[in-house]
Write a structure and sequence with these properties.
The protein is an all-alpha fold. It has a single domain (3-404), classed as Na+/H+ antiporter like fold. 77% of the residues lie in helices and 0% in strands. The protein is built from 18 helices and no strands. The chain has helices at 3-33, 37-48, 63-82, 86-100, 102-119, 123-133, 138-147, 152-180, 188-218, 229-246, 251-263, 274-301, 305-310, 312-335, 345-353, 359-371, 376-395, 398-404. Helix 3 (63-82) runs parallel beside helix 11, helix 4 (86-100) crosses helix 14 and helix 6 (123-133) packs antiparallel against helix 8 (152-180). The longest helix is centred in the N-terminal third of the chain and has 31 residues, at 3-33. The chain is globular, with a radius of gyration of 21 Å. The N and C termini lie far apart (55 Å).
Amino acid sequence: MSPASVDIAKHILMVFGIILALGTACAVIAQKLKMPDVVVFLVIGMLLGPDMAGMIDIKADSALNQLVLIFGSCYILFDGGASLRLKVLKEVWFTIVMLATVGVLITAAITSVAAYYLLGVPFIVALLLASTIASTDPATLVPVFRQVRIKDRVAQTVMSESAFNDATGAILTFAVLAIAMGHGEISISSVLLDLLKQASFGLITGLILGYLGALFIAHEKFSFLQDYAPVVSLMAVIGAFLTADGLQASGFMAVFVFGIMLGNKDVFGFSMGEDEQGKLDDFVLTTALIMRMFIFILLGSQVDFALMNKYLVGGVAVVAVFMLVARPVTVFLCALPDRRTKWTIKELLFMSWTRETGVIPGALAGLLMGMGAPGAKLIASVTFLAILMTILIQATTTRWLAGKLDLLAKD
């Protein structure tokens, strides 16, 4: 091993140590302040980044950063899926499907018009920007609803939407990119077909691996891996993502469905002893916390203040329309037709406010920068503004708003 590689390894190890130490302190502070820890992680990351303290400098396009983002998002999604209940999902499935498909298109359409007029860019660039930030972020929303206990059907609808709409957002982004780069035309039928394929294969992969995981850790006769349930959860999260990705399907959806299957194993006649279940739950909660620390501290450290400042006024205006117009219109158009669920105005208002942007749009913006897409720097700038504004404003006010609307769950 060369001295240079040893120095790099030591530096990375030091950065990881800093993230774990400060992340733990931030988690304690967030708990005391009764606010989502992702907000504090993001702020600390910005303070430690190269533009300020310079203690953390891991590039957004590095393999290490991509590894943290992919695995971290997958594990947080698995944790979110495991917390959902099939009984509740059966009641709200129509709203989830509408928000995760039609809702992304509505959000992108309204935001693109705002970007076109407020930023003065070509419409195709405005549409590419809107498509990038149109999907909500499970890595942000799942932890928020883990810490702020909202009534089941509202929390599970928003979390499920965030898990399913990443595929829609990614497909729409790359469909628009093909036009912007002069490689094709948008075909509604091809976009819908691609979305159906990604969703179906991701769903099937998650169902199969989820059932096998439940079988091997909780079946009365075949649970030979019960003592290794935490390790099984790690293997299965990686396996579900890579299998679905290899099938050109949504790996995030596969991981989320896997979590739902494992979290609802009792529905399939599987059960674990209290000790084994307790060990698995503790492991999942601890691992998900560590993943949140790494994802949001790194994300904060990568904020380019100079780039963001360049498009600050127009970008803030676009994000304001995105938060205050596009999201409410999307929620009311997609949820009101669901007569079976009978959403109340208070529930619709709350869902209109909870649409945090985070890792997935940030990753898409990074990919566009790497590919040299038209307006990529502007898109990256406004995407980071959307991440900062939605997390710092919406995530911090989630508990307050839920209390005002009487949507906090009774302990």
